[in-house]
Predict the structure of Translocase of chloroplast.
Amino acid sequence: MASQLIREWTGIQQFPPATQTKLHELLGKLKQENVSTLTILVMGKGGVGKSSTVNSIIGERAVAVSAFQSEGPRPVMVSRSRAGFTLNIIDTPGLVEGGYVNDQALDIIKRFLLNKTIDVLLYVDRLDAYRVDTLDRQVVKAITDSFGREIWRRGLVVLTHAQLSPPDGLSYEEFFTRRSEALLKIVRLGARIRKQDIQGSSIPVVLVENSGRCNKNESDEKILPDGTTWIPNLVKTITDAVSNGSKGILVDKKLIEGPNPNDRGKLLIPLILAFQYFFVVKRIQKCIMDDIAKEGKPLWG
Ligand code: GDP
Ligand code: MG
């Protein structure tokens, strides 16, 4: 019996008081908007820091982190509640195996999500990677094909390992801009988001540093090289995504067993072909038959 255990969110008390205050404010705002549950889905390739990010948000070691890709094959949902508010974070195994997207892993994730509503998707990758490739695009495409393109309206790109010194004399900002633009381009391609669709609703990119060696400010809060307190910043971006007017994604039977949710229009294709057959091909055939009939006896008969 896999009964869902919702524990008190005690990890929040591990944060320094300044961070706690900010988090309580953000959650209080959500409650004002009548949002009392938040379900966050964390996805990405293996080893990019998905599980570490889950632990950082919760403030405790809730899921296993491994330096060498030996994650369990199943998703794990961590649920914590605080003052009538429930936070669910779903950690998933990496989607890539042997250079390809592992469809079986994806299928297990989809089934795990049955009857759950995804409020926010965290698409995790590393800041300190220098190129994107077709595999990244395939991972994004796999997510898009599973949950529909709308999931990106509730999507954040999260970049871990954010405490870095950029190479080649680039400034931190320049490096961040280049890396996030390269990744966003891949996300747009993989999700088939057109340029005109993204105006005013672009996908936010958020930086994260999960390492215990993350720098801190005078209030003992973890900060990025540019001074941003990243935990409240991440949670704020998550709550903003919930309040942006889009809808969460309900993972129902139709979504996981039906056709690719982005291809619904294509279901009409057989109908259109049938229509053409009966009303165009049949007509022409009839005309030809009539012609033949009118010819009467063959000339050589
Ligand atoms: P997952 O496979 O995506 O769940 O990745 P994990 O969370 O298991 O992390 C893989 C490895 O990267 C572990 O050794 C983590 O300690 C390390 N790691 C994760 N996030 C960060 C980060 O932000 N900074 C640094 N320095 N290491 C990280
Ligand atoms: Mg993991």
